[in-house]
Write a structure and sequence with these properties.
With 383 residues, the chain is of the alpha+beta class. The chain has three domains: 67-161, Trypsin-like serine proteases (Thrombin, subunit H); 175-278, Beta Barrel (Thrombin, subunit H); 284-376, Roll (Pdz3 Domain), CATH 2.30.42.10. 20% of the residues lie in helices and 33% in strands.
Length: 383
């Protein structure tokens, strides 16, 4: 090595070191500049819940792919006979030609979910009740008529059965694990637009006293739910069924306002099993009309009286047999304090008929304990 070449090599070495230092600094500040390894690319492709779409955008495609094939369209048809023209009601015309009635077919659109490979479906009662014919169309285009296994008006649920082979079944989740803010997807048949998917979050859980059904424990969501979504699926980001879409809050003739209600799947499965086994849901019953204690009723300390007011008692009911009378205040049932009329009726409904319960009553200023044998709640008939 000559003396002349030494400064050149020193300069080149310093330049390489400076370049490497600058590159390291740039990667430290901007880590996204580093190329992905094949393992990192594979990890992105296999992200399970909120999967990655093109250009690394979040997607729920995998969740929809898992659950959507089991969501069906339901067409419930009611045939009404009527006289279409006033002329046909003329006595002279009817004397010679008889009653000229025509059939008018009204079709109610809705959705349903396939729950088992034997063709068991769940949907809403208000879709299929009183229908003369129920048609089901699957996501793959197959069609079938459905039979009604059972209807529970008090939760607005119905179980249907279809006879087709190789049916897709939706995975079942756990609605008790849902939390406010969780992402959910609604799948259904709004306005006869089959396999429509909308996305939102869980806005609230345990919604009740909405006047939608007798026993209410709704998931509230802002995923768009429109007419025709009723009976469809509410799923989590893993594609598991967590609720059955049932109702919307609307102020403009049925359109979505971002407030929808779904029945939790943990409630649905219990109702479904009872309907399949008995054809109806067995619930406990005392035969009382429960109301909130009026604000002007105070206890001995001047505070508002705890409990629920017995506003009425049905004749020959378990409550009447236990000598419960209107004006009594029920403070406890089986040692559990009661302050909410809705919760009191719900608690009694969950007790098997035939069981004996202990009730702490307040009559006047006198407390007493009575025992009542729980009866079976009569079936609710819609008018």
């Amino acid at each position: 090595m000559t003396l002349r070449s030494r400064p050149i090599l020193v300069f080149l070495g310093q330049s390489v070191i400076a370049g490497l230092a600058l590159a390291f600094l740039a990667l430290y500040i901007f880590p996204g500049l580093a190329p992905r390894t094949s393992q990192e690319d594979s990890g992105l492709r296999n992200t399970p819940a909120a999967t990655r779409g093109s250009e690394d955008r979040p997607s729920y495609h995998n969740a929809v792919q898992v659950s959507a094939p089991a969501v069906v369209n339901i067409y419930a048809t009611k045939v009404r006979r009527s006289l279409p023209n006033p002329l046909f009601q003329d006595p002279l015309f009817r004397r010679f030609f008889g009653d000229q009635e025509v059939d008018q077919r009204a079709t109610n659109l809705g959705s349903g979910v396939i729950m088992s490979t034997d063709g068991t479906l769940i949907t809403n009662a208000h879709i299929v009740e009183d229908a003369d014919e129920i048609g089901v169309t699957l996501a793959d285009g197959r069609q079938s008529l459905a039979d009604v296994i059972g209807i529970d008006n008090e939760t607005d649920l119905a179980v249907l059965k279809i006879d087709l082979a190789d049916l897709p079944v939706i995975p079942i989740g756990n609605s008790d694990q849902l939390q406010v803010g969780d992402i959910v997807l609604a799948i259904g048949n709004p306005y006869d637009l089959s396999q429509t998917v909308t996305q939102g979050i869980v806005s609230a859980v345990g919604r009740s006293r909405l006047g939608i059904s007798t026993f209410e424990n709704f998931i509230q969501t802002d995923a768009d739910i429109n007419p025709g979504n009723s009976g469809g699926a509410l799923i989590n980001t893993s594609g598991e069924l967590v609720g059955i879409n049932t109702a919307i809050y609307s102020m403009n003739g049925g359109g979505s306002q971002g407030i929808g209600f779904s029945i939790p799947i943990n409630v649905v499965t219990g109702i479904m099993q009872s309907l399949m086994q008995h054809g109806h849901v067995i619930r406990g019953w005392l035969g009382i009309e429960a109301q909130a204690v009026p604000p002007d009723m105070r206890n001995r300390q001047g505070a508002r009286q705890a409990g629920v007011l017995v506003a009425g008692v049905m004749q020959n009911s378990p409550a009447a047999d236990a000598n419960i009378i209107p004006g009594d205040i029920i403070i406890e049932i089986n040692g559990i304090q009661i302050d909410d009329p809705y919760r009191a009726i719900q608690m009694i409904a969950e007790i098997p008929p035939g069981d004996t319960i202990e009730i702490l009553l307040l009559r006047g200023w006198q407390e007493s304990r009575v025992q009542a044998i729980v009866g079976q709640r009569p079936a609710l008939e819609r008018g």
